[in-house]
Amino acid sequence: MGTNEFEKKTLEIDKNAQINVMLNTPDYTDYEIDLGRVFHNMKQMRRVYAWVIVLCLLVGVCAPLLLYQFSKPVLTVSSVVTLNYAKDERLKAPDGTDLDLSQIVSSYVLQNALADLKLSKPVSISALRSNIKIDRILTDKSRQAQELAKKMDQEKNANVFNQLQSIDLEYVNRFVVSLTNSFDDGTGKNTIDLKDAELRLVLNRVLDAYNDYLILTYADQKLPEDRLSIIDLDRMDILESLEQMQTASDALNNYCQSQSDEVKAYRSWKTGFNLNDWMEFLQMLREVNIDYLYSYVYTNGYVKNKSTMLMNYQYQLRNEQSNLDQINSNIQTLDSILKDYKKDNIFVSMQESGTSRSTSTTTDYFNQLIMDQVTNYSTVAQTETRISNLNDQIEMLSVSDSSSNLANVAENINTELVRALEASRNIYSQIKAHMEEVQASPEFTHFAVHTAASGEQKNFLSANLTKMIIGFVLGGVIGCGLWFMASLLPELTRSHSRKESKKEADA
Known about the structure:
two-stranded antiparallel ribbon
């Protein structure tokens, strides 16, 4: 047959047969996690881990407090000291020299600070000295120069840096003194801690003792010398008494002139006068009472005992002439030394041109010789003036005959003499009382004023508040992390079991 015959076959379907559809899905891995089941686990364990989180929070809050008890910070108290006398706001001593702040920890100051001071635990001077820190405060100009020097040093600009380093730093008239509460007991093994109130008391006592040191060292406010008490009108001659009054008034005036401007300007709350007013009264007394009476007595040659006064003046004249000869000899000696003195030659390099030139300089010895010579010439002029006055007095007494005239004017002269002496003693007592008031005033008994020592130790809650907050947050994070990991662990175990089953089926 030319045709193809197709054999038809039918497919019989079994009613119990199943059709399996294979989907192309990836194999399970160890990292396949069902988050729904994880959160389901967390929900089931919420009661247990609520207590765990609470426990972690308590540990986070209490741990800083526990550490604070074992490592309690050392208390440091501080005080700001201001120099009252420094009107130019510079850190200088009252005499204008550099102020040595190391005297704050000197044995003299610390001994006076600890004298009659009873503490709960004994503290040695060396331990106290090692725990005191002094911080000076730079002026704005010096601070800017210091910052610029650091910048130049970082930029390797050596020339500008060296120039800035040669600038003298200046400090303001305030500084900070701190005292740390941790003292060595002397053995080097243990430390001593004072009570907070005791620590502040010790620092205040140290600064008070330093103020006393400044007053004792720099306060040139001694009371004027009393040269009027030695004048005895009954035993001394008239001219001699008047000469002593003139000397006493000159000494009192020089004392007033030597005081600082602040002392001169101090106005008494008792009298309303200042030292400048008292100097005007003294000058008036000198011109009206003493000098006028002295000129009147001297011109007329009124003396009680001419021979005694002549002998006295001649003795003074010989002493003055002897002093003049000695001073002239010193002048000649210094002249010969200065004439032969050779100055030191030094060489100065010129930075711009790179060349050098020589110049001469003098030593401190040469400068002192010049000052001594100036003093000698001034002393010669004063001595020659006194010699001239003595010669005039001797000549006046030699030619005058005051015995006949003295009886007529003796009563008036004595009356004026007594009045002049009383006025001189009265003004001396007024100036002395004024200076006593000055010395007792706060302005001149507090050279270094300091604030009360401060630095109170914080209680354990306020000192650890920040750490407690951090511990609270960290405890909560750790508690929640443990809760999540405990809920995640069953899913990791389940995933691992599926992988093992898969490997067994494939085998």
